[in-house]
């Protein structure tokens, strides 16, 4: 049985006891509506720790007023069953007032890394992410925390926050899980209609094109990006938000791909639905 905990006090008490008993805690923060991507993080946490905690919290702070906070998919009962089937010990499922009481006023920001890429399109997003993740770390006190490479910039930012604030948690990156046709799994895929869904593979196709060029030793970023744009633009429902080639350490734009140090990432709209994908070279 997965225990469901709603309050910060009870969650802290649980972790305190586990730490006193010298048990390691693997933590998977999520916004729920779990899919195989989340489950792969949970399974990794299960294999490396004595205790697995999953948080489910759709964090209002990381959504801008024009974004999809209200319509973000939620299905706690299904999530609970999936957690149970995957050996999760505790589901931390707090309410909004619990995490952000009326008097709330403290925020955490990783300044430079939060600005490019997703940060350009979503300027307040990462401040919301780092604030809630630090709060969750303080409450759950994990030994290890698991983050998907699908949200590449988020992973890089969280690692930096852990380094800068001297947090005692190991960040474990996890590979991107994809549908059979290559589309990266995402809770937001549920917004796509049938035609959009069939065209959504263009993100992966564009990344495959980039990989093909790099394998042929073409490293010039402009050439790679132009080729990726051509792929996306051949799908009539897709609208490019950005395609970018950046260094994995400071996220600065690269004129040329540097093997082992490059992130190629993109965001593409299908109607109002915004999908992201990336490849670490
Ligand atoms: N396809 C995936 N493969 C691996 N990890 C993933 C995948 N999708 C999400 N994750 C990871 O799961 C964690 C929780 O993500 P979240 O709940 O936002 O899911 P999501 O599917 O990315 O949702 P969204 O549609 O909001 O992007 C994050 O660390 C995220 O990177
Ligand atoms: C890390 C996270 C759970 C913080 O709300 C969220 O950004 C997510 O699901 O990737
Ligand atoms: N996985 C990222 C959460 C968000 O888009 O808000």
TrEMBL record:
Chain sites annotated for binding (R)-pantoate: 62, 154
Catalytic activity reported: (R)-pantoate + beta-alanine + ATP = (R)-pantothenate + AMP + diphosphate + H(+)
Keywords: ATP-binding, Cytoplasm, Ligase, Nucleotide-binding, Pantothenate biosynthesis
Keyword Cell membrane among UniProt keywords: no
Enzyme Commission numbers on file: 6.3.2.1
GO BP terms: pantothenate biosynthetic process
GO terms of molecular function: ATP binding; pantoate-beta-alanine ligase activity
Catalytic residue positions: 38 (proton donor)
Pathway listed: Cofactor biosynthesis; (R)-pantothenate biosynthesis; (R)-pantothenate from (R)-pantoate and beta-alanine: step 1/1
Record carries keyword Signal: no
Binding positions (ATP): 31-38, 148-151, 185-188
Record InterPro entries: Cyt_trans-like, Pantoate_ligase, Pantoate_ligase_C, Rossmann-like_a/b/a_fold
Miscellaneous comment text of the record: The reaction proceeds by a bi uni uni bi ping pong mechanism.
Function text: Catalyzes the condensation of pantoate with beta-alanine in an ATP-dependent reaction via a pantoyl-adenylate intermediate.
Subunit description: Homodimer.
NCBIfam families in the record: cyt_tran_rel (TIGR00125), panC (TIGR00018)
Similarity field: Belongs to the pantothenate synthetase family.
The protein's name in its UniProt record: Pantothenate synthetase
Organism: Desulfurella multipotens
Origin organism lineage: Bacteria, Pseudomonadati, Campylobacterota, Desulfurellia, Desulfurellales
């Amino acid at each position: 049985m997965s225990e469901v905990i709603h309050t910060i006090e009870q969650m802290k008490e649980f972790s305190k006891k586990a730490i006193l008993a010298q048990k390691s805690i693997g933590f998977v923060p999520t916004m729920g509506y779990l899919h195989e991507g989340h489950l792969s993080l949970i399974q990794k946490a299960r294999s490396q720790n004595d205790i697995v905690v999953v948080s489910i919290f759709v964090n209002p702070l990381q959504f801008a007023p024009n974004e999809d906070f209200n319509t973000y998919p939620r299905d706690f009962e299904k999530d609970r069953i999936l957690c149970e089937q995957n050996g999760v010990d505790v589901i931390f499922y707090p309410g909004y007032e619990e995490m952000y009481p009326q008097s709330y006023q403290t925020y955490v920001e990783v300044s430079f890394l939060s600005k490019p890429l997703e940060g350009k399109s979503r300027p307040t997003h990462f401040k919301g992410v780092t604030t809630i993740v630090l709060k969750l770390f303080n409450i759950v006190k994990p030994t290890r925390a698991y983050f998907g490479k699908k949200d590449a910039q988020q992973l890089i930012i969280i690692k930096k926050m852990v380094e800068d604030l001297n947090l005692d948690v190991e960040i474990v990156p996890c590979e991107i899980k994809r549908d059979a046709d290559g589309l990266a799994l995402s809770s937001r895929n549920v917004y796509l209609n049938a035609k959009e869904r069939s065209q959504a593979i263009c993100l992966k196709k564009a990344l495959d094109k980039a990989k093909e060029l790099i394998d042929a030793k073409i490293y010039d970023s402009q050439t790679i990006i132009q080729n990726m744009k051509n792929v996306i633009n051949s799908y009539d429902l897709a609208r490019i938000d950005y395609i970018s080639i950046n260094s994995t350490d400071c996220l600065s734009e690269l004129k040329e791909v540097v093997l082992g140090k490059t992130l190629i990432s993109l965001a593409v709209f299908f109607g109002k639905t915004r999908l992201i994908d990336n490849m670490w070279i």
